Amino acid sequence: MKKVLVISTSLCGVSNSHELAKSFAKGAEAAGNEVELITLHNKEIKFCIGCLKCQDTGKCVISDDVAEIMSKLHDADVVCFATPIYYYEMSGLMKTLLDRLNPLYGSDYRFTGIYLMTSAAEDMPEVPERAVSGLNGWIECFERAGYAGGVFAGGVTAPGDIKGHPSLAKAYDMGKNV
To the nearest whole number, what is the mean pLDDT of the chain? Predict the structure, then answer.
């Protein structure tokens, strides 16, 4: 059994990328894993101020919801991020969270497999490439971690457009095989 953390980074409470996150989580749970799904909707996540004090203390000087999220991420074996694609990139909230996770660098984190679920109005297969590249830039800082795969749902614009989309089954299967 693995400890799986799924982080939905959309600010929209009922987003298409959140539906992908839920499918991934259901698959991981069906496989017998311990799964937690966190949504960043309504969380307080401030911008990194670049002070780098976290490199000395292992903790961020900013007081918000990131400390709790970071603790859960630190102890997870598998992490799955879900994000809408805006202008061919991950959501700003996801990028802000990744920046704030700097205290994990140099820690004895457990995660090894990192997944990415993405959704966008555009339906070309190359749409999520920059989001994957951005996430891989973060992953490269963690030598035991690696990009384990992703699912892209293209052609979904309004909340709920993803209903019946084949990407939901793909996300479920990917979660089931973590």
Answer: 96
Q: Are 15 and 96 in contact (CB under 8 A)?
A: no
In terms of Cα–Cα distance, which of 97, 55, 75, 79 is closest to 4? 79
Strand 34-39 vs strand 3-8: parallel, antiparallel, or unpaired? Answer: parallel
For the question of whether the overall pTM of this predicted structure is more than 0.85, the answer is: yes
Confidence of residue 14 (pLDDT cuts 50, 70, 90): confident
Structural domain spans, the chain: 3-176
Based on the number of CB atoms within 10 Å of its own CB, is 118 exposed (0-12), middle (13-18) or buried (19 or more)? buried
178 and 151 in contact (C-beta within 8 Å)? no
What's the half-sphere exposure (Cβ side, CA atoms, 13 Å) at 63?
Answer: 0
Q: Which fold has domain 3-176?
A: Rossmann fold (3.40.50)
Q: CA 50 to CA 167: how far, in whole Å?
A: 37
